[in-house]
Fold these 4 entries.
Entry 1:
Amino acid sequence: MIKLSKELQNDKESLIRKLMEILDSNKDKRVVVIGTTCTGKSTFVKNINCAKDMDDLVFPKLSKEERDFVCQNPWTEEIGRTMVKLAKERAKVEVGKPVFGTIVLDSDLVIELTISDKLLAERAALRKVSFEDAKNMQIQIKNEIKKSNIPVIEFNVG
């Protein structure tokens, strides 16, 4: 487990508080919070009441073959398209229960977690995940947001 310095811990708590304020002001809407890997989605889910992890909503509903396909490396556009299709079929967003993930689901509001390339590279290295895969996923997310025509709030995590 990585221990955060007091300054980083305060930054983390500040980000959680700010996101909670945005969610609270939109509690009458179906909200998805999306970002590429390493943008803090899991940390937010653990610290925000009623938050749902998209993976927890989708993966239990996948067959072994579907799960094996979408979890393979390296990440490709085909894997991304397949995951989008499966998630949109099997996950539903409810009012007051924001869903955190990597896919724009049917909703009233999207909160996009944005991150600098420098910080994304640092976090990817710490987690031993591919920076290139994270960037490719980020590009797909941005394209999905544009196509959705759902109102978007950008939330910078660093």
Entry 2:
Amino acid sequence: MEDSWYAIARDADLDEVLSRAALDERDLSAWARDRMATAGVPRNDAIHRSRLNQTFAYQILAGTRHASRDKLLQLAFGMQLGIRDASELLERGGACRLRPDCRRDLIVAYALHHGMGVEQCDDLLWEHGERTIMPGKSRGDNRSQDRPQ
């Protein structure tokens, strides 16, 4: 994609830009299916790790339900994606990519990069005063959802 932007910036002919562009117009469902197959991640495992409701997660992956950005982030953690692939998943799901100028997104990216689960990411978000990804844990509630009390 950067090559296409560069070509446009150097005033290349539009037909030339289009002919050389690596276009990928798969929807979220097709992209996620291909990504899990390439990585050898079983769909059931990804759904379990995401901590999403199983039926809802299947509907997202089938393309029959639209998900919020946080639900897509849960799916990214379930699929064990890196920062770039998580951003791609968000964008294909209709949400904005992870942004390096957003404190919350930086914490999420850190957790993804370090192979953390969604619960560990939520702990980091809470510890840094940010809104958590999964519901049920608000700022000021220091009781971790994934640790016994």
Entry 3:
Amino acid sequence: MIANQKDVRVVEYKDYIQNPKPNGYQSLHLILEVPIFMSDREELVYVEVQIRTIAMDFWASLEHKIYYKYNEEVPQKMIVELKEAATMATHLDQKMERLHKEISVIKEENKRKEETSIFNLVGHQFSIPMLETLMEKVGDRK
């Protein structure tokens, strides 16, 4: 999507989701060249964009605090647990995506059922869209 923009150029693309780092880190990293418009000129600048899910960002933020704020060597037990937590975050993302897809299918099925529902009203059959149209016409007459 970003690559299709005429004023943005993808300089570098690193997919740590398909190829996670050994510690479990996942993210999509893009180096982009984008225009910055000044009053008298246009400058091209490089920006880094990191795309993550909420679970990926939560894990990365905590991992960063542990490694960069902790003044001693991180114990091996904690390194193993961080890797396990990264795996759990991946499973959580996959589960949430599956649930999202399932509810979307259910909502679409319910919508179709509502649209095709038939009501008998004073000896006449009406579908919901027909009833809505009838109600609009009655409302217009008032």
Entry 4:
Amino acid sequence: MPRTLMERQAELLKALGHPARLFIVQMLAEAAEAAEAPDEAERAGAAGAGEKCVCEIIPALGMEQSSVSKHLAVLRERGVVEVRREGTRMFYRLTDRRVMAIVRLAREICVTQLAQAQRMLAETPQQGRQALPGGEVPPA
């Protein structure tokens, strides 16, 4: 049964719907940007063509190898990343850097929502809050 465009979009967003996978995508985006850096010194420290070895991703996430592998598999199955084997090492890269626009927009939306929530809390009137023992009023 052919999948609709909306179903494909939902699958892509589900693949990005975990903090560990967002972290991996961010790492790979930074590797891609470093590989494109005009400065020779910056490029020298970058893995081949914007890649990261799974051996770098695991300690950066601070998770078990099996968990990281599962997250990478989700990203790979949804076409977000691709893998290249070199001997026993596996190197991952983003298949399409436009995915970072999605991640950036989500971050901007969250920052805006957090700022709005903070403003609402700051505007909450002091009346209605209970005084603590000793007469102190808790901060907003």
